[in-house]
Amino acid sequence: APPPLLAAPNSLYCPPNFGMVLGSIYRSSFPRPENFAFLKKLGLKSVLVLIPEPYPEENLTFLQENGIQFFQVGMSGNKEPFVHVSHATITKALEIALNPANHPLLIHCNRGKHRTGCLVGCIRRLQDWSLTMIFDEYRRFAFPKTRPLDQQLIELYDDSEIYERASRNNWLTFRF
Amino acid sequence: APPPLLAAPNSLYCPPNFGMVLGSIYRSSFPRPENFAFLKKLGLKSVLVLIPEPYPEENLTFLQENGIQFFQVGMSGNKEPFVHVSHATITKALEIALNPANHPLLIHCNRGKHRTGCLVGCIRRLQDWSLTMIFDEYRRFAFPKTRPLDQQLIELYDDSEIYERASRNNWLTFRF
Fold it and tell me: Among all residues of chain A, which has the CA nearest to that of B44?
């Protein structure tokens, strides 16, 4: 028999703006039912959602059916000039994201650009990345809607509390 | 003593356009000496470079000093209308990239946009990703210089040979 034109049917739809952050942490935009088959492949233990609104029923059902823990740390996004993501909120989200007991973990917001980008940027801070390269990655996912306030938050975020906690719990043994 | 303003000095420079492809495959632009400290953290076993030109002496020395294997599959990039990356070249590069004996592996070209983007796109094909989402990722790294010929190569690449070989060798047990 002749080989198939495509060896694989290429039918797995990851959510837009999907990427790996670390070996056990993923990021994406808001996953919808058409992405569930893809998400199953990740073998997720947890999902951390950064929107303040209620999570959709079909997503909750998917998590429940697959034994995936659900964490929510609502952020309103950095909208000039009055809305700011607080350092305490970032710290709370990092405590969930860095804990290996919650991995593999998917972090998402709506577009996977700003709130997710802020959190990933702060993870890179803890990994000792230069700000230049943290922003290179931030812009890649946020483009064309990069926000100076997001980058400022990543730069100015006071990581002393989470750094102390993560060090004490041995959470900083990242793969890179 | 008061805590330091920054818990970490944020001094690790990854190469621009750096990202994880899979748990054991990374991608980036051309790494230079200022990136070597970062590369060390990856614990690389191999580097696969997709440019046809000779590799710089200082990069070769870095690889040698760190026991990292060097693979080169020269591609000239898809430049309209006469230069095309051949399917055979992609297959040759995939044979190196997919082999777990070579992992962790870094794939790079010059900018980490086009040649690397083509190869990663073909890996996503083998992972059964939809073309829509393969191109979403391709464009994120290639922006603002996306090339239709690159996307066409990813779409039309005949993966039957590599698929057969990868299946036979059990190379398709990707993490996602």
Answer: A176
A46-82 exposure pattern, b = at least 16 Cβ within 10 A, e = fewer: bbbbbbeeeeeeebeebbeeeebeebebebebbeeee
Nearest to B14 among A38, A133, A159 (CB): A133
Chain A nearest C-alpha distance from B105 (Å): 13
Domains of chain A listed by start with CATH number: 19-164 (3.90.190.10)
A129 vs B174: CA distance, rounded Å = 27
Q: Identify the pLDDT of residue A84.
A: 77
Per-residue pLDDT reduced to its tens digit, B148-158: 889 999 999 99
At position A48, the amino acid (one-letter code) is L
**A140 contacts chain B (CB < 8 A):** yes
Residue B6, pLDDT above cutoff 50: no
Tell me what ipTM this predicted complex has: 0.80
Q: Which amino acid, A117?
A: G
